[in-house]
Amino acid sequence: MTAPDPAQRLARIEETLARIEQTLAQLSGDFDGMQVATQRMDHHISFVESVYQQVRRPFHALMDMAERVHRGAFAPATFVGIQTGASRSRHTLT
After folding, report:
1. 40: which of 1, 23, 51, 89 lies 20 to 30 Å off by Cα?
2. CA dihedral in degrees (94, 76, 64, 71; nearest 10)?
3. Does a structural domain hold residue 48?
């Protein structure tokens, strides 16, 4: 068996190095794109949190009221339902 030619071995090493550099450049570009997307998501999360801080108390008050209605803490209310033909149906919330 003969030893590999140093010139061929060097050529293979250079090809491998070129592929590694190309892959590294691609990963670097992907990373830059991910940074932009992450920054946008961070801004969106901050926006949602600020909106939630504004509507948290009214929302929880409304949910508490709905829970009390559901449990029957208030007297049943009647309302006019959807009109079908010439008749009007009445429904009771319980």
Report:
1. 23
2. -50
3. yes
Task: At 57, list the tokens.
Answer: 């108390």
In this predicted model, what pLDDT tens digit does every residue of 15-46 receive, in sequence order?
999 999 999 999 999 998 899 999 999 999 99
* Cβ neighbours of residue 94 closer than 8 Å, sequence gap 6 or more: 72, 76
Nearest to 74 by CA among 82, 83, 64: 64
**Total of domains in the chain:** 1
Question: In terms of residue numbers, what domain contains 27?
Answer: 6-92
Neighbours of 75 (CB within 10 A): 6
